[in-house]
Amino acid sequence: MNQNAENAIRDLGVALRDRDSKLQKQRIRINKLDVANRKLVNENKRLKDESAQWQTDYDHLDDIYKYVVDKCLGSYAQKRGIQFDDSTAESLDQVLEPLLQEAVQAKPLRSHVRTLRTQVQQLQKDLLAKLDKVEVVSDDQFSQEFRSLASLIKTLSRTVRVNDKVDILEGLGPLLLLNDVSSHHWNSRAGKKSLIEAWVWSILICLVFRNPFVFLGEHCKSLHEAWTQIFGAQHHHHWPRPSKKCENWRYKTMEQLVKLAGQDTITHGNVGLMPECLEASVIDNRTLVGTVIEGHFDLMFPGYDSSKVHPIVDKAFGLAMRMSLQRSRLQITYPAVGALLNRDEMSSIPEINGESDDEDMREGVVAFVINPGLAKWGDAHGENFDQRYDIVSALVQLEPTMRVERRADVEDQRSLDIQAGFAGGIDINGEPQIKHEPNIKQEDERT
Length: 447
Description:
coiled coil, 11 helices, flat, disordered C terminus, 3-stranded antiparallel beta sheet, 8 strands
């Protein structure tokens, strides 16, 4: 009996394994069918989408066909008095045959018109070649444009709400014009407003006015390197000394670059859907300037009027472009902290804290620069580069000479090779540096 039970159990086990094997095969088959079904569903969807696209293309081509037939063939048939029905090939032939004959007859005339057009274009080029291509901007125009930019920056600095408990210098960073300035100058509310104004100017100097090519962006970085390698860097703020050859090289190069980038792109940021390399470089730099200012102000002065930043960017880029296109050398200038007052190049405001008398200030020294000046070397004809004329003087805050060591021949050693980013400081080599912040591209731009 036990033997029979064991045999029965073994038979049941064999039957069970056979059943499991069949079930497994069924599951595999079901899975394959499921995969095949999903593929069919996806393929069906793709074919429906493709069919819809074909229908769209057909409708589009049909619209074009109807437009051509109506506007071209229909108008021509009406003009020639030909009965026209676009639903038959015979009717189309009745219109196309005389139309093609006229086109063949007009071919020599079109060739003659092209020849005349080419001759006219060549004459225009010859005439333009004889004209002075430089758009001469008067000193008064530059003065108005510079003062307009300064006014926009001043308005921005005066409209923000300053929290007396916040260290603005720490938040913005001691960049360029703020370097080496004694911190007590920023203690008062008026001092904080001047700090903001000087900081915005520092950003513009670094990213827009550092050299004649910088406002065009990263794409033209090598041009400044070539300019200084050819003509040196012994002038103010490491520019070449102004000379006829130097300035000819600069303004002729800028004429071509501005033409390629487009004045509207530079001054207003307008660009097509697919900007070229130089256009994209200008747009990137405009965006960087606005982002740097707005990013800091969002953090330091919540609720400020951000609409005041864009006009500053437009005005700065427009000014930089027109400066770069002149035969004369135009350059943003500023004195070093501690330099003696030079009335030819600087104008001053009374000391903010009011701690000195007029006698102290007659030979005062620069405590800090509120906004830089605009200086010119040479004239509209590209001559007399040994003569300097300050179109707009740098606006400085003075302090008495007794407070600081008197430095009669202070030279501004603040380099303008600034790394792109947000806030600024001084690196181990004594060069200004902008700290990297999130979402801001930072690349080494030292020359």
